[in-house]
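Support reply, case 0932

Customer input (verbatim):
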Amino acid sequence: MIQNRLPGLRTIPTRVLLLVLFLFMTGSNIAHSDPAGTLSISEKVPPQVMQGVYEQVKTPYKYGIVIKHPEGHSVDCPSVFRHDGRWYMFYIVFDHKRGYETQLASSEDLLHWETQGGVLSFRSGTWDQNQAAGFAALQDTAWGGRYALRQHDGKYWMSYVGGALEGYETDPLSIGIAWTRDPSTAAPWERLPDPVLTPGGPEARDFEKVTLYKSNIIHDPDKRLGQPFVMYYNGKDAKSTERIGMALSADMVAWKRYGDGPVIDHGSGISGDPQITRIGDVWVMFYFGAFWKPKAFDTFACSYDLEHWTDWKGPHLIEPSEPWDETYAHKPWVILHENVVYHFYCAVGKEGRVIALATSKDLKINSEHTK
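Our regenerated output:
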């Protein structure tokens, strides 16, 4: 599809030439995530490519709320996928007392959603007894692709945030792994007995020694970084700053942190909830920012190698503007389907904490949706 390609810039020599010309003419430092200027020219994503990505992924039309818990509980962290011709969404529910559980919803049109039931629930006597917030893993990363979940070892997988203590994201939280034979069924997933990454582990880096949050796992058949499974996640340090780091695995079970530090770091506030997709030869990481700019918003970064990321400096993809998201508009899951970009996000405002949708085209015109 034309939408999957950025014009030109498909070889390193072309990128290098254009970037050298740009830097010569402007004297600009385009790699926000590389303040020390340590990236080579071929690792940086040129401004015109970043602009091209923005034009493809922007969603100026806010459709409104698509999931609101009937009992007034908070809902959060959508992850949307396709299975056997139908759309599904994992999302998490906070009951304002005990902690997170994970629910499954389904839809025919990405606009109207029906909750099917739970997939990760509270337990007793386990490391994750009071927190189990799950996210889709191994999704087809192609922009405008199938958005199906890939099987490994005959199973479908998810990563999740788990913890033993009650409350809202009570520290410490770790990352667990679960699997199922059928991701479209609202039934308990099988969980590995222990977390795969913990903040207190000996390999934990300074930015992640308090708590680990949402993760996104992709499959890289080319093993660019040495292993086929790549995880991005945000971790919190003692100053409550959150940054995005990486880990790798050969089998989805044993994980090892990658690199000496984070790959997305704004120095303060929160950078979190990454989602990875691929547009042409450019990897795109959607993520949210908070408190290093006002309120909370969604933005993105780009990479050619999954390791070195160039931040977008232009307009936010989503930011507070409506009564239902006037406080926070954050935690993205973005897909392209039939030439429409769907940007699902967690909205906080007058309706509480809900899941909302913004799109690249105005879908309210012919929709039965009511606020």
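We compared this against your earlier run and they match. Two observations from our side: The longest helix spans residues 12-26. DSSP finds two helices and 20 strands in the chain. Please reopen the case if you see a mismatch on your end.
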